[in-house]
Design goal:
Chain lengths: ~425, ~475
């Protein structure tokens, strides 16, 4: 063979078709990949067609208009079992968004508190925060949801023995505690004062959390309009104050003015409309509470577990973000005469945010995706309502799972777009 | 002082008064020591009023949580018994804490699920084999890492598969048979347990594929490339033949269906399979995402971002309810395998991102150096880039494994009973229903999960530190 090569003509024509030619190689690879993908798509389609006819499953999205026929335990928009699957889908989607949004807010608060606590000089606080982070991060989220639901919430007392929360029981407990340790001269009047207060209006029992419900009567919209006006005015004042400070150097108390506007304007509007918002307090009648707003235990356990679990991860992100800002920045700010508060607010946190925001985004996305675990305790989120009940009744697996996935994918993409925009704002501007 | 003014050039105006003190300052007192127990307490516990309040709050929190937990799980706990009567406060006449006999009674179910009692030694062999192969892999100092890795990632899964299921797969047709040439081979007949038709098909397919590979590479890159292509193909088929032979040959082990598996066994099977399968696919996807070919890149990005953008539960539902509809009607996949497919898809996407991070961390000079010495792209990746990148991402892989380990609990929702699922099933046993059963069960399961996850995360952190040090040299 080698002889033939040596004696024969140089392999000039074959060089044109050589595998080492990058252009040829790349087109061959891509054509092969395209063929494989097309073949896969075609095979899936053909198999799905034959399987669906064999199993007698309908296809298409016509089922969305059919009567759902199942009840949902938590609905943010009016819903009953005579409404359509499409309506049930909307109810589930809103429930998912609700728990995800509240979970993100709570987890962020917990995470920032714990992250700062882990950097505290105080060793007790630091050790407690570390224990929190290690325990919550190393237990599966589903384990935590089931723990809160089965072991904590369902072992609470029934409605008749509910735990009441409010200023009254707290003061009463402190009063009797003081009397108990021989400080009766302090505890007695405190207990008496507590007894004179109104009874608690927030209750916890094994059927969930009962809180007062605000009732909006005619004229409530005026308060909303006033709030919008106040927010817009605050933003305008902030912009004007920034411009003036840059021009003249004179500061303006934007925060306090804004706060006063946001509180006082709606109050004034409410007074003008004759206080249209009243509060309906829950009352124990017979074996259960009447009135008020009942938050189902499934929601409470899911929200607690999600925010505690994700809070542990956010704490680590916050800690590493703050640690990433070099000590020289703090020292330089101090030497310029900034006190601790402004140093944190103007120097350390803006730089830490650059490190914090990208991983924070993925934690928000994880929390949103993990909210689908509510199905394990029966929280009626998108997944439980649509991929659970609806799939069971209609059997249209392809459409339902595809739609469910598409919704979660959309939520993910929207969240990461918003956070990406925010990240661009806080990112280091380089020349 | 006058000297300085005199040395100034004549053109300069009035000299600046030198800023030098005329007299010596009094020495300042030595700085207060920051060492010693008293100083430490002052700095770390009682420096200021808020500090004192925080310390008191923390101590109260510890006092309010730790002693009750110890009391519940150890002091007041019941250690022996045969039914719920042992754990009832009324019968014992004292406050009752954790009901440990409940855990002892359910331990077999938590570790093996409903795996037949007579066959549980097989699960134990797999556990020990896995531990014996994994431990030396984790200890950096021990030699033969490559051999060890091949044993753990290549040999162990096959051995575990045969041991756990019982092997003896009823193999019918290989490539040609499945492509519609089934008539070429004799009707399925078994001789000493081996299906003749299958192995004839296998040999024929091997010859055919090798010939095609040889022909194409002969046409594209000459005789030498063709020989190496043929050699590679034959090696792949030889390895495949060994694997198929092992799962095909009857070893006399009774078959155990996967629906009998459960508990820790399922947790570990899913986590280890997920990580083993996702490693090669993740590497391929990561390379694809960094490829310069637009179609390859787009396909990889879509695949990765899709699976990362949806919750694992929907992936499991996809694999359980939707995937069977996409496959030809004659394929029936069992429940555990469906979940494994879902987990593998999901884990591959996450692994791809971890590997991509490693690839991005390799300086451009490494690529350019490899190209400069004339390495083909495939060799450049295999010999220069990947070894460095994979070493960098070992901590990331361990972290992925921790996530996967925690995520296995989700199979509960598609009715596969892992550790958490087995525990939940155990709660429903009326024989053990007592007020403290729930807390005991969650305590036990929590300790198991915590020990695994915390241990792995500490390992990953130690590894990260060591790699960091190695990088700085």
């Amino acid at each position: 063979m080698s002889d033939a090569r040596l004696s024969g003509p140089p392999p000039a024509p074959s060089r044109r078709w050589s595998w080492t030619d990058p252009k040829l190689r790349s087109s061959v690879i891509q054509i092969v990949l395209a063929l494989i993908l097309i073949w896969l798509a075609w095979a899936f389609y053909a198999n799905a067609q034959s399987n669906l006819t064999r199993l007698g499953i309908a296809s298409g999205f016509g089922f969305l208009d059919n009567r759902a026929g199942f009840a949902i335990s938590q609905t943010l928009i009016p819903y009953n079992e005579n409404m359509s699957y499409g309506r049930a889908f909307m109810v589930g989607l809103l429930n998912t968004l609700l728990v995800a949004f509240l979970g993100i807010v709570l987890a962020t608060i917990i995470g920032f508190l714990m992250g700062v606590a882990r950097l505290s000089k105080n060793v007790v606080i630091k050790a407690l925060a570390s224990a929190y982070v290690e325990i919550t991060r190393n237990l599966p989220p589903l384990f935590q949801i089931l723990f809160w639901y089965l072991a904590v919430l369902s072992t609470l007392p029934g409605p008749r023995q509910s735990w009441g929360f409010g200023i009254q029981p707290v003061l009463g407990a402190i009063g009797s505690g003081l009397s108990g340790i021989g400080l009766g001269f302090l505890g007695g009047p405190l207990s008496a004062f507590a007894a004179s207060l109104a009874a608690p209006s927030v209750f916890v029992n094994n059927r969930g959390l009962v809180v007062p419900r605000p009732i909006f009567e005619d004229g409530s919209m005026a308060i909303l309009y006033a709030l919008i006006v106040a927010v817009v005015a605050s933003i305008a004042i902030g912009l004007w104050a920034k411009k003036r400070r840059e021009a003249t150097g004179k500061p303006f108390p934007v925060f306090w003015t804004g706060l006063a506007l946001v509180i006082l304007l709606p109050l004034a509007a409410s007074a003008a409309a004759g206080f249209p918002v009243t509060v309906e307090k829950p009352e124990l009648r017979g074996f259960n509470f009447v009135g008020g707003l009942r938050v189902i235990p499934e929601f409470v356990s899911l929200l607690l577990a999600l925010s505690i679990y994700t809070g542990g991860f956010i704490a680590e992100i916050v800690r590493s973000g703050i640690m990433a800002v070099s000590k020289g920045q703090t020292e330089a700010a101090h030497s310029l005469g900034l006190r601790t508060g402004p140093t944190l607010r103007l120097v350390v946190i803006p730089q830490a945010m650059r490190v914090i925001v990208p991983p924070l985004t993925s934690q928000y996305l994880n929390l949103t995706k993990n909210s689908s675990l509510g199905v394990a305790v029966g929280y009626p989120d998108l997944f439980a309502v649509f991929a659970g009940s609806t799939l069971n009744q209609t059997g249209q697996a392809i459409e339902i799972i595809a739609v469910t996935m598409a919704v979660y994918l959309t939520i993910s993409i929207v969240t990461s777009t918003i956070m990406g925009w925010y990240n661009k704002r806080v990112a280091l501007v380089e020349r | 002082m006058t000297d300085t003014t005199a040395s100034l050039p004549p053109g300069r105006s009035a000299p600046v008064k030198p800023f030098v003190s005329a007299s010596l300052r009094e020495p300042e007192p030595a700085p207060v020591s920051t060492r010693g127990p008293v100083r430490w307490v002052r700095a770390h516990l009682v420096g200021s009023v808020p500090q004192v309040l925080l310390t008191l709050f923390g101590i109260w929190l510890v006092y309010a949580t730790v002693p009750p937990l110890i009391k519940f799980f150890i002091v007041d706990a019941v250690w022996t018994g045969t039914s719920r009567d042992a754990c009832l406060a009324e019968k014992l006449g004292r406050p009752v804490g954790a009901c440990w006999p409940f855990v002892w009674a359910k331990l077999d179910q938590l570790i093996y699920g409903f795996y037949p009692a007579a066959e549980r030694w097989r699960v134990n062999v797999v556990y020990w084999l896995g531990a014996l192969l994994l431990l030396p892999l984790l200890i950096q100092k021990l030699p033969y890492k490559r051999l060890n890795a091949i044993a753990f990632f290549g040999v162990f899964p096959v051995a575990a598969f045969v041991l756990l299921t019982g092997g003896d797969l009823d193999l019918q047709r290989f490539l040609l048979g499945n492509l519609g040439f089934g008539a070429l081979f004799p009707a399925p007949a078994a001789k000493s347990g081996l299906s003749i038709a299958f192995w004839l098909d296998f040999v024929a397919s091997t010859v055919l594929v090798t010939a095609i590979a040889y022909g194409i590479s002969r046409f594209l890159s000459g005789a030498e490339g063709a020989r190496s292509a043929a050699k590679t193909t034959l090696t792949v088929f030889a390895v495949l033949a060994v694997v198929l032979f092992v799962v095909d040959v009857p070893l006399g082990l009774p078959q155990v269906e996967t629906r009998l598996w459960g508990g820790l066994l399922v947790t570990l099977v899913i986590a280890v399979t997920g990580i083993t399968v996702s490693l090669p696919f993740g590497i391929l996807l990561a390379l694809g995402r960094r490829s310069s070919l637009p179609l390859v890149k787009a396909a990889s990005i879509i695949f990765i971002e899709f699976w990362r953008g949806v919750p694992l539960i929907t992936v499991l539902f996809f694999a359980t309810y939707m995937l069977p509809l996409f496959l030809p009607g004659r394929f029936t996949i069992d429940g555990l395998l469906r979940a494994l497919v879902g987990v593998a898809l999901f884990a591959s996407a996450y692994m791809a991102e971890v590997v991509r991070g490693g690839l991005q961390a390799i300086p451009k000079g490494q690529y350019e150096g490899a190209m400069a010495v004339g390495l083909r792209p495939s060799l450049m990746m295999r010999l220069v880039v990947l070894p460095q990148a994979l070493k960098l991402v070992i901590p990331g892989i361990v972290n992925n494994f921790i996530g996967l380990f925690k995520d296995t609990t989700l199979v509960l929702i598609v009715s596969i009973f892992d550790l958490l699922g087995a525990m939940r099933a155990a709660f429903t046993d009326p024989n053990w229903a007592s007020p403290t059963t729930l807390f005991t069960g969650f305590g036990f399961a929590g300790i198991v999960y915590f020990v695994f996850c915390f241990g792995m995360s500490r390992y990953s952190m130690a590894l990260e530190k060591r790699l960091d040090r190695a990088q700085r040299h």
